[in-house]
Structure formats: C-alpha cells, structure tokens
C-alpha cells in the first residue's frame, strides 16, 4: 500500500518534475494532425479532438507521476475540488455542451433535470459566486467559502455527470497526502496543481479550430471570439440554458 506523502515530500517531487522532466508537446500536436487528416465530419473532428486532448492531459500527468514515483490519494466520491471555481473559455463551454447533447437520451435528460433543480436551489449562492471577478487572484478562496458545488456534480453519487469531458481544472488538481487534509481545510497546502498543462492543451485545441476556421468549415463556435472569452462554468451553463450564450 502506498503511504501518503508529507507536504515537504510533495514539494521535493514537484521540484524534481520542474528540474528533470521534459514534456513533449508533440503528443498534443500529433492528435491535432491525425484529426485534421481524417475524413470525419467537422463536428466529429472537434468533439473527438476536445475529448482526446483532455485525456492527453491525464496521460501527461501520469507520466510525471511515474517520473517521480507518486500516486494520488484522490478517490471517487470525495468531490472536494468540485467546489472550486471552474473557469473556462466560451469555446470550451460550447464543446462541453455539444458533447453532452451527444450523450444518450437518458443521460443528458438526467443532467438537464439536475440543472433545473440546481439553478433553483442554489440561486442565492450562485448570485454571490457569479458576482465575483474570475480574474481576481483571491477568487479561489472567496468562491470556495460559498460551498457551491459544481453544476456537473451529481448530489447523490458525488461523481461528475460528464466525467470524460470534464474541464482541465478538474483534472489538474490532485492530492498526494492524507485525504483528510481536503476534508478539514478550505484550501489545504498539500494538493498539487498541474495547471500549467492548460497552455499545451488549449494551444492544441485552438490550433485545431483555427485550421478548420481558415479552411472555411462550418463551426458551432464563433472563432476566434469564443476562444478568448472566459467565465465561470456555472455562468456559461446558465447562459446556455437561457439561450443567451451568444449574446455575451
């Protein structure tokens, strides 16, 4: 059984990653090249690329973990990080919504029904959360104190309802110490963030969409405007439900 790491050990291993691990951005580029050379429909290329590039972030994290010999202590049902602010571009949000639309009828109806309840029951906390400035450095702590769950969190199972296409922030925040540090603190110092991987992932997503755009393909995103417009995920979902997402 793997023992939990102390904070000092996590810092030591993160320093080792910074000093000796060489990330190969080619792995992201290869996914884009393969998709652009395929004969698939434009929407399939975008959604397949979206999911594959998100998954590649998981693979890259696993390679770094192997490099320094550490294993996350996160477990299904914890949901600690599901109360952090999730900030994504409008382009990513639209890809998420289109992916959900392609889920099975039962699954997507379950999500839509959950959103109906969520935006009613959490209206007070949502008004406070969405009034925060997502560009402010202290927003993470202020948002977390509201104890507002992610709109994709299943309240019964404490699992993500769109797990395979969950955004980058949900994938890059991991704990390698005792899980109780998450249970007992709003912002514990032990968990480690791989948020720097966002640049590699988003660069590849942007390249994919840019090439399709320049080729005159019919896109369901407004490129490049959607790529550089950011907000909290609950805000994008609210606008999507109201049919106003393209008015922003």
From TrEMBL:
Known InterPro entries for this protein?
A: Puta_zinc/iron-chelating_dom
| A Pfam family assignment | CxxCxxCC
Q: What is this protein called?
A: YkgJ family cysteine cluster protein
């Amino acid at each position: 059984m793997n023992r939990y790491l102390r904070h000092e050990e996590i810092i030591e291993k993160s320093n080792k990653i910074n000093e000796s691990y060489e990330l190969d951005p080619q792995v992201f580029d290869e996914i884009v090249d393969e998709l652009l050379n395929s004969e698939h429909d434009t929407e399939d290329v975008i959604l397949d690329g979206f999911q594959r590039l998100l998954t590649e972030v998981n693979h890259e994290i696993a390679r770094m973990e192997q490099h320094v010999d550490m294993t996350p202590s996160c477990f299904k049902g914890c949901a600690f990080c599901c109360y952090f602010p999730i900030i994504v571009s409008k382009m990513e949000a639209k890809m998420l919504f289109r992916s959900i639309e392609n889920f099975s009828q039962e699954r997507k109806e379950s999500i839509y029904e959950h959103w109906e309840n969520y935006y009613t029951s959490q209206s007070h906390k949502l008004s406070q959360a969405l009034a925060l400035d997502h560009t402010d450095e202290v927003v993470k702590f202020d948002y977390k104190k509201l104890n507002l769950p992610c709109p994709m969190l299943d309240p019964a199972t404490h699992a993500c309802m769109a797990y395979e296409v969950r955004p980058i922030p949900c994938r890059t925040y991991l704990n390698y110490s005792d899980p109780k540090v998450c249970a007992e603190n709003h912002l514990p110092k032990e968990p480690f963030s791989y948020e720097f991987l966002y640049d590699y992932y988003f660069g590849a997503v942007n390249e994919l969409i840019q090439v399709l755009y320049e080729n005159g393909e019919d896109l369901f995103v407004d490129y490049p405007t959607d790529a550089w417009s950011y907000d909290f995920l609950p805000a994008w979902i609210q606008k999507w439900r109201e049919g106003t997402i393209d008015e922003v």
